[in-house]
Amino acid sequence: MTALRLALPSKGRLLDDTLAYFGAAGLTIRKTGNSRAYAASASGIDGIDIAFMQAGEIPGALGSGAVHIGVTGEDLIREKLPETPPGGPDRTTLIRSLGYGRADLVVAVPQSWIDVETLADLDDAAAAFRARHGFPMRVATKYLNLTRRHFREEGLANYRLVPSDGATEGAPASGAAEIVVDITSSGETLRANHLKIIGGEPILRSEAQLRASIAAPWPDATLTTLRVLIDRVEAREAAKGRVVLRCSLPLADRNALETALDGQGASLIALEENTATVGAPKSRAYAAATILQEFGAPRVDSVTPEMLYGAGSDVFIRVRDTLAIPAT
């Protein structure tokens, strides 16, 4: 396959945020047919086919090479594609974390367990539970691999994992488990089920990621399309929170101007034909404009860029070097 096959979550907030993210980078994706359809059209970048999948299916598709790239949560990548053996080779490579779909994987226990606030407390409680009942505490979770690894690293042993196919947070109330390990963005659902988060830092801070498959075939045409997509994405990311200032500056000393701007976190992009072009974070735009006026600019114009091209080359090279591409 020479078209770049891009797997996207098929529904929900993650889909909406993903479509908006790629749309801002110049790739417009639309579902075709009814709202339940899995077909799509993509415009703005040639050579891309869209595959809508459940978010939990995307790691497997990446791992097998059925798709070239995909968007899903880091929690699902780490759960569905654990290193085999631990420390072994990855089957995907990260292109970029996307800044949305943030959630934490946490350990939660009943609020009534007033003496359990840390994992050390939980270990003590689990040992006492086993001595009293003759069997280990049950931990309900959809994240069996991540939970097992975390508990092993923390030295917890007196527990038994219970796979959860439904609402994990309801397991203690139903008697299916004593503890839950679940993903949460605010903790409200856990609190509504009379659970509290313990252990300080979460097991994992997750967000949506764009990843590439190491197992997929990567002919030159597909790599070219990947490069275009990465260039667009990185240009959009580089433009976030930035402004471009332009002004007439006929008599400026270049070295002195660069030094003054650098002190404000701004940079001189160009000084040609008596015109200065400066890049700066929005928060430092006024300070940079003031410096330009001090150097003789009668007026400073500010433009908020949608894209700043040139940031994608290093990212593409990093990604390409991790893919299974035969030497030519």
Quick rundown:
The protein has eleven helices and 17 strands.
Explain this structure to me?
The chain is an alpha+beta fold and 328 residues long. The chain has three domains: 4-100 and 207-237 and 312-322, Periplasmic binding protein-like II (D-Maltodextrin-Binding Protein, domain 2); 103-205, D-Maltodextrin-Binding Protein, domain 2 (3-Layer(aba) Sandwich); 241-297, 2-Layer Sandwich (Ribosomal Protein S8, Chain: A, domain 1), CATH 3.30.1370.10. The chain has eleven helices and 17 strands. It has helices spanning 12-24, 58-64, 74-80, 119-133, 144-154, 171-174, 188-192, 220-239, 254-262, 285-294, 312-322, and strands at 4-9, 28-31, 40-43, 48-53, 69-73, 92-97, 103-110, 137-141, 159-163, 179-184, 195-198, 204-206, 208-213, 242-248, 267-272, 275-281, 300-303. Strands 7, 8, 9, 10, 11 and 12 form a six-stranded mixed β-sheet that branches. A five-stranded mixed β-sheet has the order 4-1-5-13-6. The chain has a four-stranded antiparallel β-sheet with strand order 15-16-14-17, with helices on one face. A hairpin with an 8-residue loop joins strand 2 (28-31) and strand 3. It starts with a strand and ends in a 6-residue tail after the last helix.
Q: Helical amount among residues, as a percent range?
A: 25-40%
Overall radius of gyration: 25 Å
Q: What is the annotated CATH architecture of the largest domain? A: 3-Layer(aba) Sandwich
From the N-terminal CA to the C-terminal CA, the straight-line distance is 19 Å
Identify the notable features of this structure and list them briefly:
328 residues; Ribosomal Protein S8, Chain: A, domain 1; six-stranded mixed β-sheet; D-Maltodextrin-Binding Protein, domain 2; globular; five-stranded mixed β-sheet; alpha+beta; 3 domains
